[in-house]
Structure formats: structure tokens, C-alpha cells
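Data availability (excerpt). All sequences and predicted C-alpha cell strings are deposited with the supplementary files. A representative entry, non-specific serine/threonine protein kinase, is shown inline so that the format can be inspected without opening the archive.
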Amino acid sequence: MNSQTLSSFFLLFNIKFLILLQVLPSGSSNPEEFYKTCGNKFSCGSITNIGYPFRGIYDPLYCGYPGLVLNCRQDEITTIQIINTTYRVLGIYETTQTMRIVREDVMRATCPQDIVNTTLDYSLFDYSATNTNLTFLYGCPTLNIPGLSLVCNNGYNGVYVLSGTQGPGKCNASVVVPVLVSTGNGYGAGGSVNSTALDQVLQQGFEIRWKMDGGKGCSDCIESMGRCGFNFATNRTACFCPDQPYISATCSGANGARSPSGALFFLF
Ligand SMILES: *[C@@H]1O[C@H](CO)[C@@H](O)[C@H](O)[C@H]1NC(C)=O
Ligand SMILES: *[C@@H]1O[C@H](CO)[C@@H](O)[C@H](O)[C@H]1NC(C)=O
Ligand SMILES: *[C@@H]1O[C@H](CO)[C@@H](O)[C@H](O)[C@H]1NC(C)=O
Ligand SMILES: *[C@@H]1O[C@H](CO)[C@@H](O)[C@H](O)[C@H]1NC(C)=O
Ligand SMILES: *[C@@H]1O[C@H](CO)[C@@H](O)[C@H](O)[C@H]1NC(C)=O
Ligand SMILES: *[C@@H]1O[C@H](CO)[C@@H](O)[C@H](O)[C@H]1NC(C)=O
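C-alpha cell line:
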């Protein structure tokens, strides 16, 4: 081996090693470990004991459905990232598959600081029927619409708020933010708004529903002493078992009855 092949050997070795390092924090790829490493429930402040399809940010990737990742700040603030926007999570209601969230930039200041619409990843979430939209208009010429008042003057040239989903019209930009119907009622045309009341409405957040279930398959799994997780080989929710087979539809624990269709389910 001459020195050049030797150095390229080490280069290759280093690259492999780096790749290995990047893969490791997301957890082992050995199915035997799946059950053991997915034992955590997510708890943070008032949100406690949240399991699959969610995972905590430090749990292995396969412990949760892709995209349903919860983070905990200062031991009390739960956040989730949806299409590049950070939301604070106010509640997670597993029985109805809903959660209440609020844009992080709205928690910091009454009017959204990031000029982006609230956009969900519709492959993961739906709006629930309890919401209505407010539209913030930025960079408006002086508007002379009765009842429409300036709600913020923080860095932008005046921000107005309207109910509903509106385009920018004569203003420079519009930003749509959902709020709960029960709190957003007062924002009909002509309803005058003061920013204290607006703060309260916005900080209640809005509700979304996650589409993929922990569901029946998952409760069967848990009943059979398994833990739900995500099988990246099949792109589906799977049941991780403490003993072989480590990935199945249900485990052999509890009632001992492993469904024979289980293996087939994961093949197709
Ligand atoms: C999210 O942010 C990243 C980095 O800023 C950007 O490359 C990507 O296009 C953004 N994705 C969306 C959906 O806006
Ligand atoms: C709110 O706006 C979004 C798009 O920004 C839309 O998909 C949704 O249906 C609207 N909700 C209501 C209640 O109008
Ligand atoms: C709207 O944006 C344009 C271009 O950036 C700027 O010149 C104008 O002053 C803005 N209008 C208001 C009312 O802020
Ligand atoms: C937000 O959505 C409205 C209505 O769909 C659209 O007219 C506006 O341009 C969007 N704003 C931004 C910042 O993309
Ligand atoms: C703002 O509105 C709330 C609720 O309608 C009211 O209680 C409060 O007194 C108002 N504040 C000001 C400064 O008008
Ligand atoms: C799983 O889904 C991802 C993203 O949708 C896709 O890139 C990947 O090829 C899929 N894998 C399998 C095994 O279907």
C-alpha cells in the first residue's frame, strides 16, 4: 500500500466513521433494541405521559411517527415544529386525537412577527372545526374602514386585524392565524378590537387533529405488552416486542395470541 492509497483509506474510514456518528444518536437499527429504547413517555410541564405517535426530541426516530416530535423547554414549555414554524403546545388530547397549539411568534408579541401564514403539514394534520381565522394586514395605507383599528405598531407600519381569511389587498402582506371560534367571535366586521383582548384570543391557540392513529392497532400492541413505534422499512406504525419477533402486529405477551395475519400485515 503506497502512502496515497493509505491516506485515501483513512479518508474513507473517517467518512464512514462520521456517517456512523450521525446515525448513532437516532438510535440503534437493531430491532432487538427497539422495544427497550422506546419506553419513554413525553412529559413537560402540564403535558404528561404522551406516547406514540409522538416522541420526545431525544428519543430514537423510530419511537414516533415522522414529524410528530415534541420538545421541552425550561421543563415547562412544550413545542412542536410544523413546516418551519415553531408552535407552543398548550394541550394534547389523545382520546380525540387533537392538540391545541399557538404560534411561538404570537406568544412573544400580539401581532405575528414572522410574516408567514399559518400552514399545516396536511399529510399529518387537519384543522378541527373549532377554529376560525383572523387575518393580520401589514404595511397598509391609512385604512378608513369603520371599526377597523390599528392593533400593533411594532416595527411594521401599522397592523390591522380582520376576521376571516383575507389577501393583502392594498396592504403589503397578510398573515392568517387561526383562533378558537369560542374566543374569536368578537372579530366580525366592525367589531372593535383592543390589543389586550386580542392577546387573550391569540394565546388560547387553536386546535388541530393528527391524522395517523395510535389507534386500534396500537392499543392491541400495548395490550400484548408491546410498544408502538415506526417501522422505516415499511413506512408504517409497528409493534415493538421485548422478545422475538421484535417487530410484529402484536406481541406474544398478555393473552398470548399473536395474530397469524400479523406477519403478513407487515409484509404488504
Ligand atoms: C424550511 O427552512 C429551510 C431552511 O431555512 C428551507 O431550506 C426550506 O425550504 C424550508 N421549508 C419550507 C417548507 O418552507
Ligand atoms: C383558515 O385558513 C386556512 C388557510 O390559511 C384554511 O385552510 C382554513 O380552512 C381556514 N379556516 C377557516 C375556519 O376558515
Ligand atoms: C410597502 O412596501 C413597500 C416596498 O417594500 C414600501 O415602500 C412601502 O412603504 C410599504 N408600505 C407601507 C404602508 O408600509
Ligand atoms: C397568506 O394567505 C393569504 C390568503 O390565502 C394570501 O393572500 C397571502 O399572500 C398569504 N401571506 C403570505 C405572507 O404568504
Ligand atoms: C379590552 O377588551 C377587554 C374585553 O373586551 C376589556 O375587558 C378591556 O377593558 C379592554 N381594554 C381596554 C384598554 O379598552
Ligand atoms: C417511506 O416514505 C418516504 C417519504 O414519503 C419515502 O421517501 C420512502 O421511499 C418510503 N419508504 C418505503 C420503504 O416505502
